[in-house]
Amino acid sequence: MRAFVSDGWQGVNYARGVWHHPLLALHEVSDFVVVDRGGEGHNCDEQDLPGVYLLTQAALDAAQAAQKAA
């Protein structure tokens, strides 16, 4: 499981078949623009995870520090 931090002005593309959690913002307003494919065929696969995953403050702080260093 991986997570990333955005500066709020970045675009994100997920590769075909990559599971992703719905977009969310921590401690901020969560306004997003989402472009999804159209057309026929199945467009949403839901998956139950085998356990609980938590995003800790320490992990968030580390991701933000890495973003600033880049």
TrEMBL record:
The keyword Lipid metabolism does not apply. InterPro entries: RmlC_Cupin_sf (IPR011051), Ureidogly_lyase (IPR007247), Ureidoglycolate_lyase_dom_sf (IPR024060). Pfam families: Ureidogly_lyase. One of its GO terms (molecular function) is ureidoglycolate lyase activity. GO terms for biological process: allantoin catabolic process; purine nucleobase metabolic process. SUPFAM superfamilies: RmlC-like cupins. Keywords: Hydrolase, Lyase, Purine metabolism. It comes from the Bacteria. The keyword Transmembrane does not apply. It catalyses: (S)-ureidoglycolate = urea + glyoxylate. Homodimer. This is Ureidoglycolate hydrolase. It comes from Pandoraea fibrosis. The lineage of its organism: Bacteria, Pseudomonadati, Pseudomonadota, Betaproteobacteria, Burkholderiales.
